[in-house]
Amino acid sequence: MRIGDIRFETAKTDEKYLNSVNYVLHSRFTSMNEFGNEALDNTINENYELIVNSKERNEQIVDDIKQNYHDKRHIIV
Question: Count of H helices and E strands in the chain?
Fold first, then answer.
């Protein structure tokens, strides 16, 4: 799912280089448990609003970004 405009694109890279690099995607899932059963009765838009306004989830995302930046990883959010 994409929300909003793409903010940055990298320059084109030589395909020979791309084929020589190992790619690993580390998925990080956030939980909706903090909302209890409330999310089960909500519309999808109400759940999106809960997710977007979740302080705990947003802090986790920011912490993950900072850690991955520190580790010199390429970050996809």
Answer: 4, 0
**H or E element in which residue 41 lies:** helix 38-41
With CA atoms as reference, report the closest residue to 68 among 76, 8, 6: 76
The encoded tokens of residue 18 equal 């791309």
Q: What is the three-class DSSP state of 22?
A: coil
pTM above 0.70, yes or no: no
Compute the distance between CA of residue 39 and CA of residue 55 in angstroms, rounded to an integer.
Answer: 16
Residue 30 φ/ψ, nearest 5 degrees:
-105, 155
User: Digits of tens for pLDDT over the chain (77 positions)?
Assistant: 456 777 777 777 777 777 777 778 878 777 766 667 777 888 989 888 888 888 988 898 999 999 999 998 888 88
